[in-house]
Structure formats: C-alpha cells, structure tokens
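[scheduler] slot 2 assigned
[scheduler] job type: sequence-to-structure, two independent chains
[scheduler] chain ordering preserved from manifest
[runner] begin chain α
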Amino acid sequence: MTHAQVECFMAVSKYQSFSRAAAHMYISQPAVSKQVSSLEKDLSLTLLQRTHSGIQLTEAGKLFYRFFQKYQTDFQTIWDAARRLDTQEAGTVRLGCLDGWDMSSFSPQLRRLRDEKYPEMKINLDGYNHVAVLDALQNGAIDIAVTLEITVGNRPELSMRTVTSAPAVMLFSTLNPLAQKETLTLEDFRDDPFYVISPDGTGSNPMEQLAVDVCRKAGFTPNIERIPSSASVLMRLQGGAGVQVTCAWTGACSMPLFRMIPLNHPLNISAVWLDTGAGTAKTRFIDELCNHYSALSAEHPLNPWA
C-alpha cells in the first residue's frame, strides 16, 4: 500500500468518479484507476462498487475511507509538528552572557562558527547580571547562558559544561587615591568598599563570597556594599572610590580609566542550558561552542574570546 494509492482512492470516493478525481489530481484517468486497483489487490478487498449511477463505496470501502481520513489528518498534524521542530533547529539560538563582559572579539568568532557549522541559524546575544541570566534560562528567554560557574550552584535541571577559565581580578579606578602607588596589593584596599552586584540588595551570593574569601586570605574582612547592577558599580568606581572583585573578562579591565590587580583565584567560565534530553541543533551547537573555545583557551588563557 502506497501514499499514491490512498490519495487516488480518497479522491475517487470524494468525487464518486474516476474522471473527476483525475481532473482534480491533474493526472490521467487510467493512472487513477490503476492506483485504486492496486490498492484493492494489495488489501484483497473490493473498496469501490462501479454502478450505472456512479461509484459507490462498499462496506469495506467505508471502513477504509474513515481510516484513511484519520490517517491523512494525523499525517498532516505530525508533518506540521516536524516542520516546526525543523524550523526551531534552524532558527534562532539565544545566548545570554554577563553584562559588562567585553564581547567585541567573541561575537565575530561566534558568527564565524555559526557560518561554518549552522549557516541557517540566527544567533542573538544579550547581557544579564549573574542572577538574571539563569532566570532567563529557566523561563525560556534564552537557550544558553555563558556565565561564571560559581554562580550556577546545584541545579539538577541544568546541564553545564566548562568552556575555559579566567583569573579573578580586583578592579579599581585610576582616580582612586591608592592608584598613584607604584606597587599595590589587595591589602592596600582594606578600608575601601568592595562593591558586589546584588540585584535585590539582600542576602549573600557567590560573587560576594568570592570577595570575602580572597580578602580573608589577604588577612582582612572586606567592607561589602551591595549594588544593584554592573552599570552602577562602574559609576561608583569611576568616582574614584571602592573596588570590585570580578572576572578578567570584564570590559572595564581594558579601559584606560581602570586598573586591575590579578588575584590568585581562577574562575571557570561555563555554558549552561536546560537539560531536556533532546538532541537538537541547539544542543549540538553548545558542543561546537565549547569545543571551539576550549581549544582557543590554550592559546589565550586570559581571554580566549580575544
């Protein structure tokens, strides 16, 4: 039994005529007759009764007519669903990264990777703070989060793969009075406020804990000030007061207005995504992304985006 046999049988049943069915299908009448005959032979049943008044369905023909109607409806539903999946796979991959990161080199490399492997895919890149990027992932606003591993925590619903690592640094403005000293250590800033991005302004978070840990190793407890956004942190630093413990990928690290002190504390950078168990183009793209930048990290340990 073939799809062509079913289509011809359904058309003849609908129009009750081989000639009208052939006209609507834009094929010859003998071709329609041959397909219907082949179907009846394959089923060892008579489906159509040819009479002087036209074509009538036999009782067996009525059963198969209803069955093929359902088959055609189900086939169309499945086909439409498959096309939607195919469109999604070749559609848009939405990436979220930490706002304030310097992505000027990353974005062109990402596009080249896309062009080589997935030319039909569109990539959107948006910035979030370390809390919002995971919220965006879980509520479906993005497909992949590229973020600091320490901010992810224990979330069994998420899959994570380390891309590379980058050093933690202490960032401060050249307008800070201490910036005039030729040699600086972390302990020199013990009296300065240590700014930590905290969107809701309450409760500790992994970046705050990082600042506390590195300062305690230097022999003091930092004066933590929770700030709602990375933009607010930069505005305060630009005023010449305070410091921030952050990742070396932070864009301000390369700006003339700022200085940084590398800390002996590497930070893993990871790709994070919702674990749906589906082998889609998006999940395969994650593998390509991780493999690509893992290789680059050997050449550019400070920032493989460069």
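[runner] end chain α
[runner] begin chain β
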Amino acid sequence: MKYICSVCGYVYDEETEGIPFDSLPEDWTCPMCKAPKSLFAEEDREEPERKAGIEYAEENMEKLPYGVVSAIFSNLARGAEKQYKERERELFTILAEYFSRISPPVVEACAESLSSLLSSDLSDLYPFVRERAEAVSDRGTLRVTVWGEKVTKMAAAILDRYAKEGDRLLENTDIWVCSVCGFIYIGDNPPSICPVCKVPDWKFERIGG
C-alpha cells in the first residue's frame, strides 16, 4: 500500500520502505515537508463528499475586514511579481500596505481562533471555490486553490503541534515562509525547493521574533 502526503505529494511505499505505514510512530513526519502522519492518505482513497454551492456564498456574504483586503492585495502583488509586471506589483503593494495600516488590531487573536478559521477554510471554503472554478474551467483559480489548501493544511498541522508542545516547538530553530505560496517550514534552513510550489530555497523568508 502507498500513502501520499497531501501537502507536498511525497509517496510512502510500504513495500519499498519495509515498514507498514500504520506501524510508524505517531510523531513521524514527512521526510520532504515535515507534514504530520495525519496528513497522509492511502493512494486510492476517495475524497469525502464536498459541501459546496452557491447558497453557501449567499448566506455568508459580508464586508471584508481591512486586514483581509490587505492580504488579498499582497497576494496580487506576488502574482504580478511572478509575471514580471513591476508596475502592477508596486500598485498592489501600495494598496496592501495602506489597508494594513488602517486595519485595527485583532483583539481576540489566539491560536484557538486561528485553528478554527483554518478548519473552516478546509471544510467549506476551499471545496466551494474549487467547485465553482471547475464549473467554469478556471485553471488559474484551480491552481491557487490547490496551493492554498496545501499551505492551509500545513498551517493547521503546525498549530496542532503548537497546542501540544507550546513554545518548545520553536526553540533553537527558525521559521521559514515561502514568499510565493506561503508554505511554512520549521527548521534550521529552508527546504531546497518549496514542497508546494517548487520554487528554490532563496524564495523563502526567515521569520523572526
């Protein structure tokens, strides 16, 4: 039986490895991206039914907070950078910085609330966006959805580890974030290539403090 990492696509082949996947210790992680064992799935396992539909969007429409708007423009700036559109990148960056400045602090910010938001994204929002993109054959949105879902899974896994290990998780190590897709990696050095979007290690930014 083969098991596939849902973040980077690494394949654990029981026949090659000589150890059943279920026999691996619970703290075993993906050799490539360090995703936990829980983010692996059997190669032939079908995805569960997705909850999606236009009704969901209509029921959950709301005015976006300034912080969210800032993040959207920041992502657009990254996209423009990848397409070598320097003028567009500058304009999106200016907008992102403006909305970041006027965004009020999030008083209720904590690991638990962030974990809840990530879970909601994975169970509801990503499936909804994927379904709508597939319906209109929007390949660009589908790619962003695939990347975003993998990055979100890893962020949720890191939060889960933090809930169990606390600050020990971050002792004597660094945090690296891919500047293209947002993938988070904990280690002394960034991976040689991003497990999600495949850019080289120099595209990773070290996060301090």
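[runner] end chain β
[qc] chain β: DSSP finds six helices and six strands in the chain.
[scheduler] slot 2 released
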